[in-house]
Amino acid sequence: MTFYIYTLGCKVNTYESEMMQEKLLKHGYVYDKESPDIIIVNTCTVTNVADHKSKEMVERFRNRHKGAILVVCGCSSENQNTLYQTMGIDILLGNKDKSQIVELIEDYQKNHQPITIFNETRELPFEDMEVYKFTTHTRAFVKIQDGCNNFCSYCIIPFVRGVPRSKDFHVALKEMESLVNNGHQEIVLTGIHTGSYGLGTPYDLTDLIHEASKLENLKRIRISSIEVTELNEKFMEELRHNPKICNHFHIPLQAGSDEVLKKMNRKYDLKYFEDKLKEIREIRPDVSITTDIIVGHPYETDELFEETVENSKKFAFSKIHVFPFSKRDGTVSAKAPEEVQVSDTEKKRRSHVLCELSEELEVSYAKKFIGQDLEVLIEKSGEVSTGLTSNYLRVSVKEEIPNNTMVKVHITENDGKQLKGEVLEKMSLG
């Protein structure tokens, strides 16, 4: 039988979809995007837009492939399971039991009865999943953690992902070793709250990075996202001495105003955030620091938004991912009185302002590297090949180079979207 997986949302979902694909292929199923017998939609609920897109894709696949077995899983189905149960889905899951995808499909084929599985508790064990060879990315993602207990006032994710829990330390290392042995040179550590890895165990994220760095053919370790409060002294010391840690950190700010941060129930203030950025840049002067910012959160006045703009300039991010505030039922922020809500029109204006600033900051950061030699991991081969540097800059070269080749490139220009350069040396072949 043939199958197709459509993935929405974050790197955790990407990893989980890759895991499901690997399991299906291993059991003799064949990938086919055009005429699949089985369709899996891995959904996202981080915003109302993500929820809408998830439901839209489920409806589209149900209508276009009426005879296919439709499987829906992920955060949106977990969050709105009652609604999804009315959509003619054959196998409906939340965030648990994705690792049982083959068994669930075989059970459905045998009995032809709809399967619906949800868990009514946040107290879930870590669901063991492993991927041995990423087919969708040159860089390999490894899900090391799930769940969150931060309960930021705007966020629904703790309710749909459960309590923080981690992959066994030795299992995680073994998975990374397998990925490296299968040719991956860069591993991206990912989770819902990645920096909390190892909570309640003898190990933490720094321990995992330190041990993984001993893998000889592993060139880079990247952290998908980390909270500023988790960049502790132990991690900073590892950063100082471990060249395999990528020169890029995605550290969510969410608001550049202490007043709004407090309303968001974030666990730091602006001074703490700024001091930590300074500390990182003392160790890695050329580091790329990207961030997430929510605009139009309740209580964010024009003046408080301007604070966010000015602090974004001050912190010199290399990119800002901008999200208009999305009211998520069940969160504290959704209960804020109407008089402190920000209109959709104003959210759109503020988003535009911050997106423009992000473009300026991106260009400014990238220009610093013109004339320098950077190591690039090729991810897309062709007459013009493109790839990523350690500090997450996209670089193109006018030369056909195999994917997963590490090359040294002399940077010659920035066209506003990416850097361009000339290959000096092929450091490894894909």
Characterize the structure shown.
The chain has helices at 11-26, 48-64, 75-79, 81-84, 101-111, 157-161, 169-181, 205-212, 233-241, 258-263, 270-283, 302-315, 344-367; strands at 2-7, 30-31, 38-43, 69-74, 91-93, 115-117, 140-143, 145-146, 165-166, 186-190, 220-223, 248-250, 288-295, 319-324, 373-380, 385-389, 394-397, 406-414, 419-428. It is an alpha/beta fold. The protein has three domains: 2-117, Methylthiotransferase, N-terminal domain (Rossmann fold); 140-367, pyruvate-formate lyase- activating enzyme, CATH 3.80.30.20; 373-428, OB fold (Dihydrolipoamide Acetyltransferase, E2P) (Beta Barrel). A hairpin with a 4-residue loop joins strand 16 and strand 17 (394-397). Helix 12 packs parallel to helix 13. It is globular and about 65 Å long. The protein starts with a strand and ends with a strand. The mean pLDDT is 96.
Q: Quick gist of this model?
A:
The chain is α/β, with parallel strands linked by helices and 430 residues long. The chain is 34% helix and 22% strand.
Q: From the 3D coordinates, which CATH architecture of the largest domain would you assign?
A: Alpha-Beta Horseshoe
The level of helicity is: 25-40%
What proportion strand? Answer: 15-25%
Alpha-carbon distance between the two ends: 31 Å
CATH classification class of the largest domain: Alpha Beta
- Number of H- or I-type helical stretches: 13
**Quick one: overall form?**
globular
| Low confidence ranges | none
Strand order of the largest sheet: 2-1-3-4-5-6
Output mean pLDDT: 96
Please identify the structural class as seen in this structure.
Answer: alpha/beta
Number of strands: 19
In the CATH hierarchy, the third-tier topology of the largest domain is known as pyruvate-formate lyase- activating enzyme
Radius of gyration: 22 Å
CATH superfamily of the largest domain: tm_1862 like domain
Question: How many domains would you count in the coordinates?
Answer: 3
* Biggest pleated sheet: 6 strands, parallel
